[in-house]
Structures are given as C-alpha cells and as structure tokens.
Amino acid sequence: MTACAGNHILVAGATGFIGSAVLREASRSGINAEGVVRAPHIGLAYARFIRGTARPCACNPPIIHAAGASRGDVWSANVTVTEQLLAAAERKRLRRIVYISGYGITPSSSDAYFQSKAAAEARLRAGRIPYTIIRCSYILGFGDELTPDLALQAQSGSIRIPGAGRYRIQPVLVEDLSNVLLRAALEPSRRNRVFNVLGRPLQFRELVTIVARASTSKCVRLVSIPPETYLREALLRDNPTFTTGELALLMADLIGPTTKRCIGIPIRDARTTLAAAISR
Length: 280
Hints:
alpha/beta; Rossmann fold; two-stranded parallel ribbon; 39% helix
C-alpha cells in the first residue's frame, strides 16, 4: 500500500469541462488530485481503478464523479458509468463519492437525460459508499457548452435566442462549483448529503447580453426565433443547437432558492463575474 496525504482525491471525467476545472482548482489549493483516465479500447469513462490496475492507496480517497454526457447514449454515459464507478469505489473502500446531478431531476421526467440522472442518483443511494449529490442548473465558465456559441454569434453582430429570452436561469461559475466539490469530497463526515447549488436568477437575454459585451466591441442585436424552429431542428438534425430536453429546461423558468454559500464556499453572482471568465 502506498501512503498519501489526507487531501488526496480522485476525479472521474478529468478531461471534461467540470473535471478539468476541478483539477485546476485543486492545484491552486494544494490538493493532491489524480485524474481518472479513460480506457480507449472500451469507451466511456472506464477507469484504471475500475479495471483493477490503479495503485492501492492507504487513505481510501474520495472520488469526484464528473463523468457523463447530456447527449447521445445518456443512459450508458450517466447510469452505466455510475454503476461501474460505484462498484469500484465499494471494492476499494473509497471514502466518499461526490456526484454532479441536475436541479429539478425527477424519475418521472419525460426527458431521457433527466431520467438517466435520476437513475444515477438512485444507484448511489442504494450503494454502500457515503455520497454527496450536488444539483446545479447551468454551469458556466471557460470551456462550457453554452457561452462559446453565443460568443461566436456575437462576432457576426447578432445572436439568435429562443423566444423573447425572458425566462430565467440560475448559473453558477465552474470555479465556484469546483471548490464546492473539493470541499464536499474532503469533509470528514460520513453522512449522505444532497445540496442544491443555484446562482442568482437572471433572464436568458441578460446572460446573452453579458456574453456579447465580453466577446466583442460590436453592437450586437438579439434576434428572437420561435421556439418551434428549434424544436424542428432538434427533430431533424443530428447535432441541433438545443435538444428537445435542453430547450424545455432552458425555457421552463425553473427557479429555486439562491445559494449564497454551500459547505462554506461562497457562490458568486454570475452578473459580476461571468464577463471576466469569458474574457479570460
């Protein structure tokens, strides 16, 4: 058995948007974070410790589970991978598993992504490893799935948005979320915990305006597109701007209590911090 510091953690999905941000924040904080690697000949998120080739660790580290997908075969990406990670964590007696879920996730949802996230949560609840589930709405920052396309459109002088854009979202910055995940992974308690991490609400058109101003000096026009146009695109194109589930989530105006702090980590207002993150 190799000895390691008590702040050693594993990060599954370490090459993705959230996982890579967690590794950056861990490095800044002096936390020994080890990314879990993929097995190219198998596919999604099989890790060294799943295959039994990870070196043993005396401290039974926690694992942050940031592997998953919002499109494609979401059941395999979100449920099967969670089952494999949980089985490996139980086999190796890891201290805790921290899972990134979504706000508003319910098993009764008609959306396949929401169903897969709810099923993954259920697997964790049925397991033998202490868990922390972090439920977020939109997660924004360098490398996210939403703002790069908006910034690219801004360069052309106009940005297309579904409808009037007055529906609200509650984004959190990926740096803040990363610090919440790290704190959750390292906390000594063995209790099972679930947290909603929701930023201050803002209208989608306000978010688009922030992105546009941070991306270009041009005057950018917001163009309202009927939601039906996006629905047709989702049904007819392999890689639409929004899937039907993404469009429904965006326009649902699903709002919960704003999170000011989570496990002691302050959650900043995206209005004041997102522009700097985009520029960086």
